[in-house]
Structures are given as structure tokens and as C-alpha cells.
Amino acid sequence: MFRNPTPRPIIRWTLLLAVPLILTGWVDLAFAKEKSIFSPIIHVNKQKGFIVVSTDSGVVGVAVSKEAKRHLGKLPAGTGMIDMVVEMRNGKPPLLKSWKVVGGESACKHFDGKRCR
Predict the structure, then answer these.
(1) d(CA 111, CA 21)
(2) Strand ranges (E), the chain
(3) Structural domain boundaries in the chain
(4) Dihedral, CA of residue 65, residue 35, residue 104 and residue 66, to nearest 10
(5) Per-residue model confidence (pLDDT) at position 32
(6) What CATH number should be reported for the domain whose range is 33-111?
(7) Which of these, 45, 73, 86, 90, could form a disulfide with 94 (CB 3.0-4.6 Å)?
(8) What is the pLDDT of residue 76?
(9) Is residue 49 a contact partner of residue 64, using CB atoms and an 8 Å limit?
(10) Using one digit for the tens of pLDDT, what is the confidence trace for 65-86?
């Protein structure tokens, strides 16, 4: 009978390399990373639901949830400082979790993910 031409060591090495890479991808998706950003508010886009801020890596657009989108008009764009917590997502813009307006006047100084205070 014919034997499989692929030597067994090659299969073992392939499995040893592939399995950890796959598991690392699954673990990364399961544990979303949160990051704090303290920045001036550069621009607020109420229609698209984005806040543009500056970070160490440059200018970043932060996506907001439906709950936060209703309160975007209360942010002091161009004159205020914001301290926000975002969820970092692979291949997508960061998603806003909460904010605190530190500098500037705002009708919504603190947003906890559900409501303004």
C-alpha cells in the first residue's frame, strides 16, 4: 500500500505553531482592552456619532453608543478637555464607555455609559 508522503515531524511542527496562534486570537477577542484617554475635544460629529480626540498615537475618532449619541451636543467641542474610557477593538475605532468633562462648560459633565449627570 501507499504511504502518506508527508513526514510526521512536519505535521507536529505545524500543529505546535498553529494551535497557539489560534488560541491567542480567541483570547484576544474574549478580553477587550479598555484604555483611558485624556485629551482636548477636537471635533464632535453628532450625525455619525464620533468624537475626535488626540492621543499619543495621533488624532483618533472614537465611536459612541446610541445612549451617548443623544448627549454629544452637550460636549464643549474645540474648547474642552475630556477624560474618557474607551474599549479598544481590532480593526474598528475605539468605542466610548464613559466620559468626564474636565475643562470647559458642559450640560453633561459625567456620562457613565447610560445617562448624563
Answers:
(1) 38
(2) 33-45, 50-55, 58-63, 81-88, 95-103, 110-111
(3) 33-111
(4) 0
(5) 64
(6) 2.40.50.140
(7) 86
(8) 87
(9) yes
(10) 999 999 999 998 888 899 999 9
